[in-house]
Amino acid sequence: MWFFWISVALLVTWAVAAYLLAPSVWKLYFRHHPALENVDRITHTTDGHPGDPLNVVMVGTEEELIRAMVAIGWYPANSITFESSLRIVVDSVLRRPDDQAPVSSLYLFGRKQDLAFEQPVGNSPRQRHHVRFWRSAEKEHDRPLWFGAATFDRSVGLSHTTGEVTHHIGPDVDAERDRIVEQLDSGDWIQEEYWEDHFHKELEGRNGGGDPWHTDGKLVLLMLKDHHTDSLQSNKAGP
């Protein structure tokens, strides 16, 4: 009988620690994390116009971030060149798929994105899910923080501000944020998850192309699992 009650006590202790204590400590810690307090809320274009809003942060090495995004079906986006820009126009007109179509440069921390990923929709690069990431100088457990801006490209057209050919984003940036969280969670890539309420004080705006966006103001912070390390440990434990 005593074994049963000890088992129950251990189970309750684990549940309290895992589902109440750990999330509370995580939330308290990142509420005052300098990386979240000091970062700009909005990215910027090359000419200084407001870009897309930040809505997701990943904690992990570059290798872990790339592995996780590729595993859930995202493709690394190509850099913008004359050739890649011409190709995306032709592919859009002819409705040919391009899983690695280029994304334009946006700026955070005084530099353009370090990584960019996309998921095409249909057989044309006209529509796609995409996210840019900037590596922060701040770290958590010796792993860098990656600030991301996830949006949905709904069409190709002329910029409302410059007249250049560009992608127009959909206004619901929260849906793209939530989509990434759901995909990473389904793929068992999330070790810890924290939501920063009121990260955005301004809940709507327009990006550099003049496209409107709106948000609930929340930023999600995800600590990634290192499946590569898990796999190595499993192999070592095997016969």
Topology:
Blueprint: H1 2-31, H2 34-38, E1 42-44, E2 50-53, E3 56-59, H3 62-71, E4 75-76, H4 82-94, E5 107-108, E6 111-112, E7 115-121, E8 124-140, E9 143-158, E10 165-169, H5 173-186, E11 190-196, E12 204-206, E13 212-214, E14 219-224, H6 227-237
Parallel strand pairs: 3-14
Antiparallel strand pairs: 1-2, 3-9, 4-7, 5-6, 7-8, 8-9, 9-10, 11-14, 12-13
What tags apply to this protein structure?
6 helices; two-stranded antiparallel sheet; disordered C terminus; alpha+beta; 8-stranded mixed β-sheet
Question: If you had to describe this structure to a student in words, what would you say it looks like?
Answer:
35% of the residues lie in helices and 34% in strands. By secondary structure, the chain is α+β, with helices and mostly antiparallel strands. The strands form four sheets. Strands 3, 4, 7, 8, 9, 10, 11 and 14 form an eight-stranded mixed β-sheet that branches. It has a two-stranded antiparallel sheet with strand order 1-2. A two-stranded antiparallel sheet has the order 5-6.
